[in-house]
Design a protein that fits this description.
about 550 residues, mainly alpha, 19 helices, about 0% strand
Length: about 550
Amino acid sequence: MAQGFLQIAVFCGLLLLAMPLLGGYMARVFTGETVFLAGAERMVYRALRVDSVASMGWKAYARALVVFSAVCWLALYLVLRTQRLHPFNPQGLHAGAWDLTFNTTSSFVTNTNWQYYAGETTLSYFSQMAGLAVQNFLSAAVGLVVAVALIRGIAGRALGNFWVDLTRALLYVLVPISVVGALVLVSQGVPQALGGGHLYLGAVASQEIIKELGTNGGGIFNVNSAMPFENPTAFSNLVEMFAMLVIPVSLTWTYGRMVGSRRQGYAIFSAMAVVFVAGVVVCYLAERHGTPAQHLAGVHGPNLEGKEQRFGIADSSLWAVVTTVTSSGAVNAAMESLTGIGGLVPFSNLSMSETIFGGVGTGLYSMLLFALLAVFIGGLMVGRTPEYLGKKVEAREVKLVVLGTLFTPLVALVTAALATASRYGRASITASGPQGFSETLYAYLSQANNNGSAFAGYSGTTFADLLGGLSMVFARFAPMLIVLAIAGTLVSKRVAPAGLGTMRTDTPTFVVLLVGVVVIVGALTFFPALLLGPVVQGLTNQLF
C-alpha cells in the first residue's frame, strides 16, 4: 500500500512542478507576450482575413465559436461518410451507418470522444488522422479560448478575438507539446506507421498524445489505453496521465497571473485539489480492499478484475480518477470492474460537472461559475452585495450562473430518464437491475459532461446514437455561450474598492465554501439517481 501511495504522491508532485511553468507560459501566450511564432501567426490571420488587433464583444465571440464548430462538424461528418473513397485504408473499411456517424461526429467536435464502435474495425487511418485527430486539437482549443475569454472578462479587459485566441492556443500550446509528447511515446514503443496490412497500426503516437493532452479520450483501439499499442509501459502510462491533467492544473496558475492575483489562482487550485486527492484515496483504498463478493468466496486481496497487471491497483485507480475529473474519458482498466465504492468515485466526479480540473478550459470556467455562485451565497450570509474581484455579482450574473451550473446535470438526467423509461432506450441496456441502471446513467452522465468513458454494457442503437449526439452538442455549447455572456457582463463592470465587509476569495475559508457548494450542488442533483445505481449495487453485493 505504501508503494501505491508513493506512486500517487510522485505523480501529484510532478504536476505541482509543471503548474507554474506551463501556467506562466500560457499567461504570456494569451496576453501577447510570447511571439516567437509571429510569422506563422500572421500567415494564418492573412489566410482567414482576420484583423488580429480588433477585439470582439461576447456575442461576436460566441457567433465565431458556433460557426467554426458547425463547419468542423460538417467537415468531420463528410470525412467519415466518404471513408471508402480515401487513401490510407489498407483494410478496405467502409463508412459506418449514418446514425453512428452522427454520434461520432458530435462526439469528437464536442471534445467528448464517446465511441459506439471499435476503432480498429471501423475507421481507416485517414479517418483517424484527418478526421478525429484534427478535431482532438480543435475541440480542445475551443474549450481553452472560452476559459481565456472569461478570465479577461473577470479581469476587466476586452474579451479578445476568437480567431486570434484559437490560433495561439494551437500554435503555442497544443501542437508543440503534442510533438514532444508523441516523440516520447514513440520511444516507449507506441506505433507511428501507416502500414500493417491485416495488423491495424496507424499513426497511434501522434493521436494518443493529443487524445490525452486535449482531454479528448477516444482511442484508436477498442480497449483504449489498456492496449499495449497505445500504452505499452509504466512510463508511457505516467506520461499519458500527466498529459491529461497538466493543462487543466496549470490553467489555475494562468488565471492567477492574468487577473493580477496569484492567490486567486491558488484558491481555485486548492478547491480542485482537495476533491481530487480525496477521490484518489477513496478509489485506491476501495480497490485495495476488494469486493464483498470476493470476500464471501474466500478470495482476499485487491480487486484485480478488469485491470492491466502492467499498471496494478495504484495506477489503475489513479487513472480512473484522473480521467473522470477531467473530460478525457480514456481508460487503462475496465471501469465497470471497479468495486461498488471505487465505481462511485467516477460517478461522483462526473456529477460535479467538470469542476475538478475538468477538460482543457472547460474545467476552469466551470469552477469559476461555482466561484461566482459561492460568492453570491456568501454575500447573502453576511448581508452584503456579493462581489468577485471587486465586481458586483448582480441578478443578471446570478441567473446566468445558475443556468450554466445546472444545464449539464439537467441534460444528463433527462436523457438518462428517457433512455431508461422508453422502449427504444431500453433496447441498449444489456444488464439487469441496478447494474443496468448504473450503466445507463453513466453513459449519459459521460456524454453530457463531454467525458466519453463508459461502464460498458450500454450498446448503441439509432435511438442511443441520436439522443447521445444531441446531448453532447447541447451540453457542450450551451454552457459555453452562457460563460461568454457572463464574461460580457463582467467586462464592463466597474471595480469597487474592497471594504471591511468584503468577503475575500483568496482565503482557506472561501476554499471550504467553494468545495461545499460544488459538492452540495452535485449531491442534491444526482444523489437520488446514484442511490438507485451504484449504492444499491454495493449493498446488494454485501447482502449476497
